[in-house]
Design brief:
The chain is of the alpha+beta class and 192 residues long. The chain has helices at 9-16, 28-35, 49-52, 71-82, 87-91, 124-134, 163-181; strands at residues 22-26, 43-47, 58-59, 96-106, 112-117, 142-144, 147-161.
């Protein structure tokens, strides 16, 4: 194949000697799945020079997913250092587990762009998480057929709010109410 299209053996020989080319090898099963071609021994796809260069294609599925540098443990450390832990409860989320699903593009150079959230889109918590992602380090990009590519990434960030937080919020609410109901003398303020 040349750039995914069947060519004859003679044409392939001319192309092999014509310049810089990369090759993708496929076993019989992958050849059928990818190109719909039945083969006993697999096939080789020759990527011409023009196809070797970076494309504007953004993959939704890849062989190797983009990932945070250092893996899951470094991701957790990064979140603990940069997220405001109480933002969800401060915003009014009640006790429970909240999974925010963020979607963004990890470019070939590891930069992140096109942020969105699949749930809670207008919440302050989602906006805060997106800012943390935007200001974070470059990611390790995805790979497809051995080549670095741009790809979409869905990344969950989970907030767990315990019953104790709800109790704390009730106390703060009661303090606010009692402060609002008292006649004020001069300039008094209560901050939380």
């Amino acid at each position: 194949l040349l750039d995914g299209k069947k060519i004859s053996y003679v044409d392939g020989g001319k192309i092999l000697s014509a310049g810089k080319n990369n090759f993708e090898g496929y076993d019989a099963k992958a050849a059928f799945k990818t190109f719909g071609i039945t083969t006993n021994n697999g096939l080789i796809n020759i990527l011409s020079e023009s196809k070797n260069q970076s494309s504007d294609k953004i993959f939704t599925q890849v062989e190797v997913e983009p990932k945070f540098p250092g893996g899951e443990s470094e991701w957790s450390i990064f979140l603990r250092k940069n997220l405001k832990a109480n933002i969800a409860s401060d915003e009014g989320f009640k006790s429970g587990t909240y999974n925010f699903i963020f979607k963004f593009i990890v470019a070939e150079d590891g930069t992140l762009s096109d942020f969105s959230t699949e749930n809670y889109p207008d919440s302050k918590t989602a906006k805060h998480c997106m800012e943390v992602l935007k200001n974070g380090p470059k990611w390790i990009p995805a790979k497809q057929n051995g080549h670095v590519v741009s790809a979409y990434r869905k990344q969950p960030i989970t907030f767990v709010i315990s019953e104790e937080m709800d109790e704390k919020e009730k106390v703060i609410s009661q303090l606010k109410q009692s402060t609002l109901n008292k006649p004020s003398r001069g300039a008094q303020s209560l901050e939380y």
